[in-house]
Amino acid sequence: MMIEIPMSFRETQSAVVGVAYRPEWVNVHDFLDALEHSIADILPGCDKVILTEDFNIDQFRLDNNKTISLLNFTELFSLSQIINIQTRVTYSTQTLLDLIIVSKRDLVLESGVEGTYDISDHHLVFCKILLDLPRDFQIRTYRDSRNCNTDDFCTDFANNSVAIYG
């Protein structure tokens, strides 16, 4: 299952954040085929893709066929998996199951894992990304002063303490 969140930053730039989950009972190849079709539809019209997911495939087991299939998937679309430490910790195992996959590694300013020991045995994965957002536009506020009594204004201003910050 994948949820897509499209975003636009400028007329010529767009990004999609996708969230995917593969339950252990779902066949890896069926899941990757479905994800491949989604990515193939998204990439031509999108500058940036960020996938967060729990594939239930341990990325530490490089000799595992499921891991190899996932690596082949990321290579097919020139995607990069940026999380490299354990994301699920139990009494007997430490696995890398929760991933963030990006289309452009240079977008990522920081990534990591935050422990959520009180909530789940899966840790929270995060990344801070660089987005080319439009420059801040200038806001101008105008107040009509035609009906302002300048004598009352000056008296009020003189009788109140005013702090200027800046």
Tell me about the largest β-sheet: 5 strands, mixed
**Can you tell me the residue ranges where pLDDT is under 50 for at least 5 consecutive residues?**
none
Q: What is the chain-wise order of helices and strands?
A: EEHEHEEEEEEH
**What is the CATH first-level class name?**
Alpha Beta
* C-alpha termini separation: 50 Å
Instruction: Please tell me what the overall shape is.
Output: elongated
The helix fraction, in percent, is: 10-25%
Pfam families: Exo_endo_phos_2
Domain Endonuclease/exonuclease/phosphatase: 32-125
GO molecular function: catalytic activity
Organism: Ignelater luminosus
Can you put this structure into words, describing what you see?
The protein is built from 3 helices and 9 strands, in the order ββαβαββββββα. The chain has 166 residues and is of the alpha+beta class. The protein has one domain: Endonuclease/exonuclease/phosphatase (Deoxyribonuclease I, Chain A). Helix 1 packs parallel to helix 2. The model has no long low-confidence stretch (mean pLDDT 81). Pfam families: Exo_endo_phos_2. This is Endonuclease/exonuclease/phosphatase domain-containing protein. GO terms for molecular function: catalytic activity. InterPro entries: Endo/exonu/phosph_ase_sf (IPR036691), Endo/exonuclease/phosphatase (IPR005135).
